[in-house]
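Thread: quick sanity check before group meeting

JM: Hey all, I'm pulling together slides for Thursday and realized we never actually wrote out the predicted structure for the chain we discussed last week. Dropping the sequence here so it's in one place. If anyone has concerns about the input, flag it before I start.
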Amino acid sequence: RPFLAAAGLSAVAAMLAAGLFEHNFGDSEFLMLFLAMITLPLAAERADVQT
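JM (edit): ok, ran it. Output follows.
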């Protein structure tokens, strides 16, 4: 599932780029979305290994 890794990386890059223009990481909703996005590829890989 390489598309999940690419999607996670692109989401992280987009969030970091957005952080250049305003302080997003102090916002709890943004931080929760960021943490969920960076863990989704790892969770998908782990689920793929267990099946």
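AS: nice. Residues 2-50 form one domain. The chain is about 80% helix and 0% strand.
JM: adding both to the slides.
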